[in-house]
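Replying to the earlier thread about multi-chain prediction with a worked example.

Input:
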Amino acid sequence: MRAIILCKLGINVIKKVIEEIKAIPQIKKVMSLTGDYDLLAEIEVESTEELYEIFSEKIDVIDGIIASNTHVVMKAWEK
Amino acid sequence: MKITNKYIINIIVANLLWSFIPIVATGLFKDVSILTILFLRFLTAGVILLIISILIVLVNNYLQPEKKISLKALFTNLRHKNRRFYNVRTYNYYFLIGFFGIILHILFYFLAIKKTSIPFAMVGMLMTIIFISIYEEGMNYEKFDVFRILFIIMLTFAIIIIVFVSFQGAELSGSPIELHGFLYLVLYAVTGSFLYISIDRDSFSKKELQNINLNRYYKIPRALIKMSIAFITGVIILIPLSYIFIFLPIDTDITYEVESFFTNLTNIGSILIRWEIIYLIVFATILPYLLIFLANVNWKSTNLTYSQWNSILGLIDPMSTLIFSVILVNQFFPLEYLMIVIVLLVITIVFRYAHEVKNVVHAYIFLKIKKGFLKILSLKILKFYGVRQIDSLIGDYDLLLHIKLNSFKDFNNLVNRKLKSIEEILDLEVQFINKIEKN
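Result:
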């Protein structure tokens, strides 16, 4: 399963946060953004338990992330 | 910025294969009509591409019965109206590309080569890029930014040098460049501009989008059928048109080609098996198109789209044609001038790349939508130009659109004209992508 994690970051931490998030093997895409959020990460996991484990142990603990918002992808339509 | 897409090599190889076309074709000009070359090349390649597309479908359906591609759907799609090309039916769109963008384009290309020289004909390719830029500026698609102005200046310098050297060569050889040749070159550039502007204006029906999402390789037989229909219909129309030229009271270069074409028909079999024709069919048509479509289907989401890379690397074709024409068929082009033109064209590629990167709009759009419209809206929005992917989400938002466009004008059109006119969209949130940090 795939999920989209949107993050709001503190000041002057974007490079550090990106490096820490990029290092997580289950994170497949990382984009820096302009808008309400500063960063978007796409994560691919086997189950909701694995999503919870990675989020709580590897992402939620990163200093500099002020707030996050996770969306689980039910289906992807491509062209 | 990292270039991580291995399919770029497909575009480079396709352009290299195309660059041999004038060198191979000039070997045929002595005793084979240009119309015969076009007829054999595009009719045979069209039929073979059609067979390949059917074989791909059959093999896929045998190996992946759960991801079947419907042959019927591929052909019924031809009746779908193309919203991105004046609402004409898809088969008419393919025919227009085939006749005006491919057959006439190559006809004028070969006539230009015959009446001038291979290096001089390259001017047509460079003019095409300038024409497209002027068209895009005129239609307000893309503004002239500093990189675009710079690459047009580089191209203009390259054109001036090629024209100067070609006139010098013509004077030395005693066969001056005819005015006809220049006219064909302009027509070649005009039809080429039409081809490049129109070729990617496909629109997908809802049924097709469902098929692509069941099996993304659906796009390969679809693209092959597109090219085969463009080739076959485009070239078949040449026969009635040829008769018109025969009965015209004036003699033109085309009249001569038509007469030779009808003479060639008596020994068409032996012409078909000449190595030059085989090269043109297999290595200059079937193989490059297969490479290009494979790249298109498997294109990884790097900063630039497949069509942007395709237009940037399109300059490899005239550049290598110029080099090979000097090395292989001894066309007149002194080394110092050749080096200058190559450097100018390489700089043009760099400026074009910078121009495309500067103008690309890469964004995510999050949507909240009315209850009960999830699937209908997903398929409706996926048809919009620039929407690459849609994710159905569980969370604050219902849909996530992956957007990649060539200009803010297109982006404005998508958001303000299209998305904001859909009543079922309750909320819309745009997030622009600054940088791809990991992909």
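Chain B has two domains: 8-359, 361-432.

Feel free to reuse this layout for your own posts.
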